[in-house]
Design goal:
The chain is an alpha+beta fold. The protein is 36% helix and 22% strand. It contains 14 helices and 14 strands. The structure holds glutamic acid (GLU) and magnesium ion.
C-alpha cells in the first residue's frame, strides 16, 4: 500500500491530554512558521472530551506552532506508522504568545526564576501507571514475577523512550495491582516537562501496539493505591554548578532551596488544583497509600508533600541532591504542574519564606483545591486573570459532571481517559 508520512503538532493543555493536528510531513518547512489552526475553546475540552462551559464561545483563532527543538520521531519497527510529532506553542495569529499557552506559562516562570536568581531548574518526572497487559497476581508488589509478566512491554518502551530522546533511567513493578513505574533522566527547564509529556505518550504508544493500555489515572480502585507523578528538582547556577545542597543546613538545603520549598508549602492548597486536578486525585491523597497527605517537607517520609530524596554517601552529593514534589498526578499537564511549582517556589524566594512549623492537611477534594486556587491572588498573578478564570471554569465543569457518581465510578471514568 502506498503511504505518505504524516506528522502532528501537539499541545498539552488544562486536561493534561495531548491534542493537536496532523499534516503531511513534506509540508513541515511552511508549517514550522505558520503552524496549524487552533481555537481558544479547545483549552476547555476536559478529560472526557466535553466542554461544560467556555469563556471563549465559538470565537477566535489561534495557531499551534511546532517547536523545532521538540520534534519526536520513533519507529517501532513493527510495520505500524511511526510516532512522529512536535510539541508546540499556542500563539495569536500575529505570533505573540496566547495567555493560556501552557508551555509559555512554564517558560515565563522559568525566565522569571532565571532573571531574579540566575538559577536554572533541572527536573525529572517519575511516573506510576497501571499496565492492562498483565493479570493481577496476589503478592506481586515489586516482584520479579510482576516484572517478568509485563513481557516485552518494558523493553519496547525503553527503546521508544531512548529514540524519543527521553534517556530512560529505571523501570520497576510498583506496589499496586498491575502497577509499574518508570523514571527518565532530568532535563533543564521546559525540556523536563516536554519529556514528561513524551514519556507518557511513549508508554501509551507501546501498550497500544501490544493491544493493551498504560493507564496513568490518579487511582483506579478507591481501595487501592494511586498512580503518582513525583517531580524531582534541583538548581544549577550560571556556571552549571549544582546549588541545591548546603551541608551546613539541618535538612541539607541551600538558602534558595529552603525558600523555594517554603513557597511551595505556603501555596500548597492552591497548587493542588493545578498539580492534582481530577476529582479522584483526592482519593489517592489519603493516609497509608504512600501518597502525600500534608503540606510538609520531610527528609524520609512519603506522606509529605515535598520530600528530600536520599543521597548515596561517597558520591557527588551536591549533584545528586534533589527534592521531590509528590502532590502531582498525570491528570495535570506537566507544563502547568511544573510552572505552578516554579511560581510558588519563586514567591518563597521573593518573600524570603521559611519552612512553616505547622503541617496543614492537603485539601480533601478537588472543589476545596479549586476554592483555594480561586482565593489565591498570587496564582491569579502567575497565570493571568483569563487563564485563572478559564482553569477554574474547566475543572469545576468537570467536577460537576461527576457529581453523584460513586468514587469507584469516578475512578472508572478517569481510567478510561488517562
Ligand atoms: N503510589 C504512591 C503515590 O501515589 C507513591 C509510591 C512511591 O513512593 O513510590 O504517590
Ligand atoms: Mg513509586
Amino acid at each position: 500500500m502506498n503511504r505518505e508520512p504524516l506528522t502532528m503538532v501537539c499541545t498539552c493543555e488544562m486536561s493534561g491530554r495531548v491534542r493537536g493536528k496532523g499534516f503531511p510531513a513534506r509540508e513541515l518547512p511552511s508549517r514550522m512558521a505558520r503552524g496549524v489552526g487552533w481555537v481558544p475553546t479547545n483549552a476547555m475540552i476536559n478529560a472526557f472530551s466535553a466542554i461544560p462551559a467556555t469563556p471563549f464561545g465559538t470565537g477566535g483563532d489561534l495557531i499551534l506552532v511546532p517547536d523545532p527543538a521538540a520534534e519526536f520521531e520513533v519507529d517501532f519497527a513493527d510495520g505500524s506508522a511511526k510516532e512522529h510529532f512536535f510539541l508546540g506553542d499556542l500563539r495569536h495569529l500575529d505570533g505573540t504568545p496566547w495567555e493560556l499557552c501552557p508551555r509559555d506559562f512554564l517558560r515565563r516562570a522559568l525566565a522569571a526564576l532565571h532573571e531574579e536568581t540566575r538559577l536554572t531548574l533541572l527536573s525529572a518526572f517519575e511516573h506510576e501507571f497501571t499496565y492492562t497487559g498483565v493479570d493481577e497476581a496476589p503478592g506481586n508488589a515489586y516482584s520479579l514475577d510482576a516484572f517478568r509478566r509485563q513481557g516485552i512491554f518494558a523493553e519496547a518502551f525503553t527503546a521508544a523512550l531512548r529514540a524519543a530522546g527521553c534517556e530512560p533511567d529505571s523501570f520497576m513493578a510498583e506496589f499496586g495491582a498491575r502497577q509499574y513505574e518508570f523514571t527518565v533522566d532530568p532535563a533543564e527547564g521546559i525540556r523536563a516537562a516536554d519529556r514528561a509529556v513524551v514519556a507518557r505518550e511513549m508508554a501509551r504508544a507501546t501498550a497500544h501496539r501490544l493491544g493493551h493500555r498504560a493507564v496513568f489515572a490518579p487511582i483506579l480502585d478507591p481501595g487501592g493505591v494511586g498512580n503518582g507523578v513525583h517531580i524531582h528538582f534541583s538548581f544549577r547556577n550560571a556556571a552549571g554548578t549544582p546549588v541545591m545542597h548546603d551541608p551546613a543546613d539541618p535538612l541539607g538545603l541551600s538558602p534558595a532551596a529552603r525558600q523555594f520549598v517554603a513557597g511551595i508549602l505556603h501555596h500548597q492548597p492552591a497548587l493542588c488544583a493545578l498539580t492534582a486536578p481530577a476529582t479522584t486525585s483526592y482519593i489517592r491523597l489519603r493516609p497509608n497509600r504512600w501518597a502525600p497527605t500534608h503540606a510538609t517537607l520531610e527528609q524520609q517520609d512519603r506522606a509529605a508533600a515535598v520530600r528530600i530524596c536520599p543521597v548515596t554517601p561517597g558520591t557527588d552529593v551536591a549533584r545528586q541532591f534533589n527534592v521531590e514534589y509528590r502532590v502531582a498526578d498525570a491528570a495535570a499537564s506537566p507544563y502547568l504542574a511544573l510552572a505552578a511549582i516554579v511560581w510558588a517556589g519563586m514567591d518563597g524566594i521573593r518573600q524570603q519564606r521559611d519552612i512553616p512549623a505547622e503541617s496543614p492537611a492537603l485539601p480533601a477534594t478537588l472543589d476545596a483545591a479549586l476554592d483555594a486556587l480561586e482565593a489565591s491572588e498570587a496564582a491569579r498573578d502567575w497565570m493571568g486573570a483569563s487563564h485563572h478564570a478559564a482553569y477554574l471554569m474547566h475543572k469545576r465543569g468537570e467536577a460537576a459532571a461527576l457529581a453523584g457518581l460513586t468514587e469507584a465510578e469516578q475512578c472508572t471514568r478517569y481510567a478510561a481517559t488517562y
